[in-house]
Design brief:
CATH superfamily of the domain at 5-129: NAD(P)-binding Rossmann-like Domain
Strand order of the largest sheet: 3-2-1-4-5-6
Radius of gyration: 35 Å
CATH class of the domain at 5-129: Alpha Beta
CATH architecture of the domain at 5-129: 3-Layer(aba) Sandwich
Distance between the termini: 35 Å
Helix content: 40-55%
Mean pLDDT: 82
Largest sheet: 6 strands, parallel
Structural class: alpha/beta
Strand content: 15-25%
Number of helices: 22
Low-confidence stretches: 1-8, 225-247, 319-324
CATH topology of the domain at 5-129: Rossmann fold
């Protein structure tokens, strides 16, 4: 991470399918040398001019050491293994690690448990699933709320929110932009009405007043969620286990209460009948033993068991009554009661078993939910990407209906309405005229365009997202259809794969202001491009937004850390960054500070001391230099970044030091 680009040597991409081609394209934007391995000759490239981008293309099996050697694997800094076959990817990862023990391995794999084991055994390893990375972007677009992105970070939910300020908003005409920032929130962008969307962060004035019509995007960290241990579903077996382990009466009573509250009516009846039958069985055994001392305990148990399973006629129909073995009337009546109760209990058991069998049998043919009437999402194409989008929309509690050319397996997305067959004919069956959003993600981009046009004609007000593959095709559609969101799924994923190849841990990605924003984690190493810098220099110099910082020496974690924080070896920093921002970090391309702060005067002797402390903290200069400045007022400081300069003037004012910003 953060090495100079001249140290990069070679980046190797194994597999030049859609994802692999986009990975090459993104890597070349970093200005590095890219070699590639492809199993077969490709006649048609999805990314134009890709053969010109690859420095060395080797045709062969990327699992073979000889092929890897031809691609220069021993000089590789990172190896991206992104074929469509996960088995090939994993085998190639082991082969690559055996030839290069230091290169960073990035593979395409959806096997989460296996990926964790590979990470432990291969080292310097990351794995992503190409269909999951862009799915959240599609889902959030369809959701059409203020949320533009969300992800988990250190057990905290991080949410990216884009809000349009109206006259009733509590910030309107009451707050400056800088006043929104706090320990749980950080402003990303601020756009005035009818102004173009910014391509970089921090293109806003810190002291700007929030006005009606403004659009503000910020990231916030919610409180750490309270994790409740899962409650184990009660069952009659738990009673036996509780008794066997010597559970106290208070705990047993609590368990019985829990079972009674959580169980169904049928389960309650079965439990009560079961306890009654056990009681009758034990009582019958005891009564027959006491009434007939010659009976053994086994004989008494047999008689009671036969009566319990409805064998009264088998027992007494052939029973010869003699003077020495007479049955009292009360025992005879008790025997009849056991038989009747046993028959009823067996009937209940048969009913429960029949219910379970029928439920299991008809579960597969259960009819899906009806199509929503209005304010729903129409999801067209339920392949791997479509299914991931559907699951995310279900998590967001968003009504949706799916359209797919063929019928899905009964166990796939059983909780959503589904129309299968000809997609064009299916559009009239999903209430598309009242839908909120339409997402078209089939595997044919031309068909996606045609379906998108039909959907827009039927509902011009609906949000429309179209999945594409060819970058030129995407650009042309985006220009011709300004009302549609054209998203290249593999391009979104490739940006995460490429960023991870440079050593960054990519937590998530989302679309903001028509470009991809990545959540990247940096491990600070002595001598890299971030080591020893203030967060202000990192944020404003590279154009990234720090959102969490782990200090290695004190083992402390801070969200939305202060600009005054200095990065040391072993620290971890998580930032929001565009591909351009990651490139600037990788190449150590720091924007030059251009804003001057003129310190005029201190209003008291104490202000002189406090002013020096503030200058040292905010600018990062030595305390001796800061004290010299305060003793030689008025004085002009070295150039700072705009937001850094504004913060310094604000902090000096609180310390009774007069200062101003000059150009």
């Amino acid at each position: 991470m953060g090495q100079n680009i001249t140290d990069a040597n070679i980046f190797l991409v194994c597999g030049l399918g859609n994802l692999g081609q986009h990975c090459v394209s993104v890597l070349k934007e970093f200005g590095v040398k890219v070699n590639a391995i492809e199993a077969n000759h490709i006649k048609k490239w999805q990314v134009p001019d890709l053969p010109d981008l690859v420095d060395n293309l080797v045709i062969g099996d990327c699992r073979q050491p000889k092929i890897l050697e031809q691609a220069g694997i021993r000089q590789c800094r990172a190896i991206l293994i992104v074929t469509s076959d996960e088995g090939v990817n994993i085998a190639a990862a082991f082969a690559a690690r055996s030839l290069n023990s230091n290169a960073r391995l990035i593979i395409r794999s959806a096997q989460e448990n296996l990926n964790e084991l590979l990470r432990e055994n291969l080292g310097n390893f990351a794995a992503f699933e190409a269909t999951r990375l862009p799915a959240k972007t599609f889902a959030l677009f369809a959701y059409s709320s203020e949320t533009r992105g969300f992800f988990n970070l250190e057990n905290r939910l991080m949410r990216v929110v884009k809000v349009k300020i109206d006259a009733s908003h509590h910030w309107c005409d009451r707050r400056q932009i800088c006043e929104i920032n706090n320990s749980n929130r950080r402003v990303i962008t601020h756009v005035r009405t009818r102004k173009p969307l910014p391509r970089r962060f921090y293109h806003w004035e810190p002291d700007a007043q929030i006005q009606e019509g403004d659009t503000i995007t910020y990231i916030e960290a919610t409180e750490k969620p309270v994790l409740h241990p899962p409650r184990t579903k009660s069952s009659p077996w738990l009673f036996l286990r509780a008794i066997a382990t010597g559970m106290r009466w208070q705990n047993l009573r609590s368990l019985v209460t829990q079972f009674w509250e959580e169980s169904s009516q049928t389960q309650r009846v079965a439990a009560v009948c079961g306890m009654v039958m056990v009681s009758l069985f034990l009582c019958g055994t005891l009564l027959y033993k006491l009434q007939y001392p010659k009976f053994t305990w086994q004989d008494a148990l047999n008689v009671s068991l036969v009566l319990s399973i409805g064998g009264f006629d088998n027992l007494f129909g052939q029973f010869q009554v003699s003077s020495s073995l007479s049955i009292p009337w009360w025992l005879h009546l008790f025997s009849i009661s056991i038989t009747v109760a046993g028959t009823v209990f067996i009937g209940i058991l048969y009913a429960m078993m029949t219910e379970r069998v029928l439920a299991a049998r008809f579960q597969f043919s259960k009819r899906r939910l009806p199509v929503p009437k209005a304010d729903h999402v129409v999801l067209i194409g339920l392949g791997r990407v479509g299914q991931q989008i559907a699951k995310l929309l279900q998590e967001l509690k968003q009504p949706l209906v799916g359209i797919h050319p063929t019928e899905l397996e009964p166990g796939v997305l059983p909780q959503i309405p589904l129309i299968h067959g000809n997609i064009k004919n299916a559009l009239c069956k999903v209430n598309i005229a009242t839908a909120k959003s339409v997402i078209v993600v089939t595997d044919d981009e031309v068909a996606n365009l045609e379906i998108g046009l039909l959907a827009h004609a039927a509902n011009p007000t609906a949000n429309l997202a179209i999945r594409t593959f060819d970058p030129r095709f995407s650009e042309n559609i985006a220009r011709l259809l300004p009302y549609a969101r054209v998203l290249g799924a593999y391009m979104l994923s490739a940006q995460a794969f490429a960023a991870a190849a440079f050593g960054e841990n990519i937590h998530s990605l989302f679309r903001l202001n028509n470009q991809t924003t990545l959540v990247a984690e940096y491990q600070i190493v002595a001598g890299d491009s971030l080591y020893g810098k203030l967060l202000a220099e990192v944020a404003y110099g590279y154009g990234v937004v720090p959102i969490s910082y782990f200090m290695a020496t004190e083992k402390t974690l801070k969200f939305m850390p202060s600009d005054d924080t200095k990065l040391n070896e072993g620290d971890r920093l998580v930032v929001l960054a565009t591909i351009e921002g990651l490139q600037r970090v990788e190449r150590s391309m720091v924007a030059e500070p251009q804003w001057l702060v003129r310190v005029e005067r201190a209003l008291s002797e104490e202000a002189v001391f406090e002013g020096a402390r503030v200058i040292s903290r905010v600018t990062g200069c030595e305390m001796v230099i800061a004290r010299t400045i305060m003793k030689q007022l008025p004085s002009t400081l070295n150039p700072l970044y705009k937001h850094q300069a504004y913060r310094l003037v604000s902090q000096l004012s609180k310390s009774q030091v007069v200062a101003r910003i000059t150009n």
